[in-house]
From TrEMBL:
Residue ranges occupied by any DUF6895 domain in the UniProt entry: 20-313
Listed Low complexity bias regions: 280-290
Region (Disordered): 269-290
Pfam family, one: DUF6895
Entries under InterPro entries matching the protein: DUF6895 (IPR054190)
Record-given protein name: DUF6895 domain-containing protein
């Protein structure tokens, strides 16, 4: 159990959670490397490209949210460079385009690198050609995924007339559903909608006013419910959303959530996706015992550890006053199918 377990948590301690997570990610960098079957037609995309893309997205986001002198920025930059090298500096995306021209996951992952200034002109040209076809435009996707694909196209220089606003209103969050219908799947869907709308936390103003007000009201109880259930992975995604809103939740809500995440984190920096509910850790004090259990294997904790690193950087940025123009008073108070082989909601997911 980390040293944060027995006391309240402040910005510096949130940063410690992020630093520990990055230490684990750096130590396990080799586990993110693409395997030999990454380019085969029956390759396991969720075990090859998806982890690498999620590593890249987290590192690109943290790099953009931290100053160059920050050790977290340096670590994120190095891991992003590693991820780009794994793709052959973009060359493997071109090979994927040739073998799976209508798969969307290569463009979704490539767009992460493009947003960080790492580009492959040959792949972009090939992807743009495919994107002009009716087959590409008519690919059936759920609205949250569709919103992500549209954002990925724009990051990669592809422009077409489909309107984000119309797609947004077909998502779970965009429809402003009854709050009691929130569950795990809708939770992940709503976090990704906010990620797409805010460009992964860079532009809080991208969240429409009605959605921002809805989230300001209901995100705290949803976050508390997830943490009560020991859902550390989704809890961290909701913390990213919280720090990305024009007016994030109050001090007490965030402090309580971060204290529980800190208790759940292993000394190595790894954060399990889920507390071991069979032992009764899903109650209010679940975080205290979760870190005593054996550290889960890579596939069971890499994503939640990535989300802990991302959430910490995003929250610290908010606390430092670098984030939002809106909500300044609250901040001051606180400081005081083929395409379906890749089944996530986007990267990360």
């Amino acid at each position: 159990m980390t040293a944060l377990a027995a006391r309240g948590i402040r910005a510096g301690e949130i940063r410690e959670v992020g630093a520990a997570a990055f230490a684990w990610l750096s130590a396990h960098r080799g586990d993110f490397a693409l395997s030999e079957d990454a380019l085969t037609a029956d390759g396991q995309v969720d075990a090859t490209w998806k982890p690498l893309g999620e590593l890249a997205q987290t590192c690109a986001s943290v790099r953009s949210h931290t100053p160059p002198s920050d050790p977290l920025h340096v670590c994120a930059r190095e891991l992003l460079r590693f991820a780009w090298q794994q793709t052959g500096r973009g060359e493997l995306f071109l090979r994927l385009q040739q073998s799976e021209p209508f798969a969307t996951y290569p463009l979704e992952i490539y767009s992460v690198f493009a947003s960080a200034g790492l580009r492959h002109p040959g792949y972009e040209a090939a992807a743009a050609t495919t994107a002009r076809t009716r087959g590409w435009r008519l690919t059936e996707q759920d609205p949250t995924r569709r919103l992500g694909v549209l954002k990925a196209e724009r990051r990669s220089g592809i422009r077409r007339p489909e309107r984000d606003a119309e797609v947004l209103r077909r998502t779970w969050l965009g429809g402003l559903p009854e709050p009691w219908t929130f569950e795990r799947s809708s939770g992940y869907a709503l976090t990704h909608v906010v990620f797409h709308l805010t460009d992964w936390g860079r532009t809080p103003a991208g969240v429409p006013a009605d959605l921002a007000a809805y989230l300001a009201h209901w995100l705290p109880p949803w976050l508390d419910t997830c943490l009560d259930a020991g859902m550390w992975d989704l809890g961290c995604e909701l913390l990213i959303v919280a720090a990305s809103l024009p007016c994030p939740p109050d001090h007490t809500t965030l402090q309580h959530a971060w204290s529980r995440i800190a208790r759940a984190q292993h000394d190595s920096g790894a954060l399990p996706q889920q507390a071991p509910v069979s032992r009764g850790e899903a109650g209010a004090d679940s975080g205290g015992d979760a870190a005593v259990a054996p550290e889960p294997d890579f596939l069971q904790c890499y994503h939640s550890t990535l989300m802990a690193a991302f959430a910490a950087a995003q929250t610290v940025k908010y606390l430092a006053g670098e984030g939002h123009e809106d909500g300044a008073e609250d901040r001051a108070a606180y400081v005081g199918g083929t395409q379906n082989r890749y089944r996530g909601q986007g990267v990360p997911g």
